[in-house]
Design a protein that fits this description.
Blueprint: E1 3-7, H1 16-26, E2 32-36, H2 43-52, H3 69-76, H4 96-106, H5 108-117
Parallel strand pairs: 1-2
Helix pairs in contact: 4-5
């Protein structure tokens, strides 16, 4: 592919090295990779901590984040020329219920967590 993208997906892969190798494999040399991830030290950490209270930790808990330049460079730097653009994303919606339905229907970890809680 000429362009490969992952919007808040690749960082949930159980094996980051394998996921990075697959991104490099499917993207042609000189192609473009675009990923969005939560950076460490922010709301992503708070989210992971909250979800972790209700489900077992990932098998590789404590691993790095694709949002950390040093880690991402180690994982992807041989295959891609990396540029980091830190931004803040704010989820908006017409109501709290609309946002709840969006994230619990589209964020895999929350979807599974809500389903596991039943009713």
């Amino acid at each position: 592919f000429e362009v490969v993208s992952s919007a808040h997906g690749v960082h949930f892969a159980p094996d980051h090295a394998r996921a990075a190798a697959e991104l490099a494999r499917v993207c042609r040399p000189g192609g473009r990779l675009g990923i969005t991830v939560w950076r460490s030290g922010g709301a992503g950490d708070e989210f992971a901590e909250m979800v972790g209270r209700y489900q077992p930790p990932a098998s590789d808990a404590g691993r790095g984040s694709f949002g950390e330049p040093e880690y991402a460079t180690r994982m992807l730097g041989e295959a891609f020329e990396l540029e980091f653009i830190p931004e803040v994303w704010m989820q908006t919606g017409a109501s709290g219920e609309e946002i709840w339905n969006l994230v619990t229907g589209s964020v895999p970890q929350l979807k599974l967590l809500v389903e596991s809680l039943g009713g």
